[in-house]
Amino acid sequence: MATPNYGLIATFDSTPDLYHAAEKVRDAGYKNWDCITPFPVHGLDKAMGLRRSTVPRISLAGGITGFCTGMSMIWWTGAYDYQITVGGKPLFSPMFAFPVSYELTILFTAFATIGGMFFLNGLPMHYHPVLKYDQIKRGMDDTFFIVIEARDPRFNLANTKALLEQAGGKEIKELEA
Amino acid sequence: MSTHAATAPAALATDSTSSSAATKALIIGIAGLVLTGAGIALSPNKHGPVMSYLVGVTYWTAIAIGMLMMVMIHHIVDASWSVVIRRQWEHGLAAFKWLFVLFLPLLVLSLLKPGYIWPWMDLNHVLHGHETVGSDVLYQKKSGFLNTPLFMGMTVGFFIIWVWLSARLRKASFTQDSDGNAAWTKTNRVNSAMGLPLGALTLTFAAVYWVKSLEYHWFSTMYGVWFFANCMRGALCCGVVIMVWLYRRGDYKGILNTNHFHSIGQLMLAFTVFWAYVTFSQYFLIWNANVPEETFWYNLRELNHDGTTNQWWYVGLVLVFGHFVIPFCALLSYRFKVTQHIIRRIAFWVLTVILVDMCYNILPALKDVHGDSLPFLSINLLWVLTSVIGVGGVCIWAYLRSLPTTKLIPIRDPRIRECLTHHE
After folding, report:
1. Residue of chain A whose Cα is closest to the Cα of B283
2. Containing domain of residue A171, as a range?
3. Cβ-defined contact of A98 to B280 (cutoff 8 Å)
4. Structurally, how many domains does chain A consist of?
5. What is the pLDDT of residues B356-409, one digit of tens each?
6. Alpha carbon distance B89, B95 (integer Å)
7. Hey, are the CB atoms on B280 and A60 less than 8 Å from each other?
8. Closest-CA residue to B251 (of B52, B403, B66, B81)
9. Residue A100 and residue A59 share a domain
10. What's the pTM?
11. Are residues A60 and A92 part of one domain?
């Protein structure tokens, strides 16, 4: 079957079922797969073998950029581009540049965090192949799903199906791309 | 002395290690106090050791106040993650009555020798050879607040309020262990709603009276907030040290998970930023306005009368980097916050720098004949050390004595289950 399938979707009835199935899929070495749950399941990230998010690094980069922008902006305006003495103070001092730098640190950190989160999550995403599955709306109510993508190097229609069956998945369906 | 300390360990059959540790702490504490006393008795200039003792008492009182505020904030926001750690802070509150006892010598000394510690108490105290405190218009305008009877009354009042609030919070929490009545949680919520404004006011006035009034000419509206920031950081760091200690001893195995360390580490980071914010604001506004009545306080901590840099300038830099930059960068890391030996190291570091901050605020009040602040590196550091160990030993003894009198964690707190399964 050489159809351009997106992958396989399996249904689970309860949180423990899903949790243990996720552990099996993780241990089988799959990388391109996901769980769909109606509510956050604590510890599922560990069961899926997910590492901590890299958003904090992007935030840090944003913060450092903001701080440097604030410092250099105050230096450039006050001590370089338009030199003018105010209140007998030096043309540049980190003292009075600090409030601006501090504000820009926060602002740029916030931008980087939101932007980084959107980027890493692949948002905005207007279409996703699982939306074609007619039962998917139950994933917002009382049912749990595991989706394994066909682009995963370990994906093999028969073997992956067997793995999901063995992990307790019901109604294993192929998803159109 | 209360009697339950003697009976409770037998009744609960809990560890004898903490009672022997308590005795050790008390012996070390008394040794520190005796050494400080010897320093005061034997030093040719007794002013240094006395001010060092003020550093020691203020330092531990700040930590105890921080614990009181943490417990009350816990109740007022109905927190769940900190239920098990709250119990350790409640034990820490046992130190207040002993801190009161240890503060009394300073009050007695001020009555016997007015102006020896707080110069404004002596109206005949000569200011830089010009005039006396009594004829100083800045003193006259502030004398409604800065007068000895009010100072004495307020200081006693602060301790009464702290001891009283601690007793109420402890009683409700400890009683809940045995009767499991959720009403105690509500009681403590009311105690906290009443106690938080009281705590905020008392700690602010205490900071102004005990520390800021050493230079009574000075103005700073940030001072109470600065003190509060140190109180909170001290309490959080002590919380971390206790958590790691009890975890390694085995008591907290299965109770604490990485998320508890993550959460308290996040608060440490937040209060690091808070400390930096208020401390910088205080400095920045004074630097910007450049008014002599305010700048002299920082000048004392930077320059001698001949314009040369003194040692306090470097101490100030140690605070900027040691009290803010280093802990801030370290606490940004998730791994550092959840790795026990690293977060404990950060906690010890911050506890040390809080002491340096107290020295920075108190010790420059010691001056030579030119009116310059005496250097930081001096014999006084030894007396700071003996005082901190002395007062600290007594505080740790009070904590360890209280520890075996209750269950290790508030087992019947309505939020205990949520706390034990604390997650991100």
Report:
1. A95
2. 5-52+125-176
3. yes
4. 2
5. 999 999 999 998 888 889 999 999 999 999 999 999 999 999 999 999 999 999
6. 10
7. no
8. B403
9. yes
10. 0.91
11. yes
